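To: structure desk
From: M.T.
Subject: fold request, one chain
Message: Could you run this one when you get a chance? Sequence is below, nothing fancy, just the single chain.
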Amino acid sequence: MQQGAKRLRPEEITRVFIGGLSYSTDWQSLKDHFSQVGEVEFASVLMKPDGTSKGCGMVNYHSHEEAATAVAQLNESV
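Reply: Done. Structure tokens follow.
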């Protein structure tokens, strides 16, 4: 951890990692899909230096409860 960085308590975590994405998934379709269970503040598909997808991404929710709901309800849905 970086010096001075605050370590979040589990109940403060609002980011969900999503693996196993189709390589054609873009940030907007990721956001749209994960908006089913809560307010998505940010969605990102991780990219290789050549601009192609790594097949994974991250979604930030407004609250921990929404993130936990996404994990429980949307696991293996993409």
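Reply (cont.): Residues 64-74 form the longest helix (11 residues). Let me know if you need anything else for the meeting.
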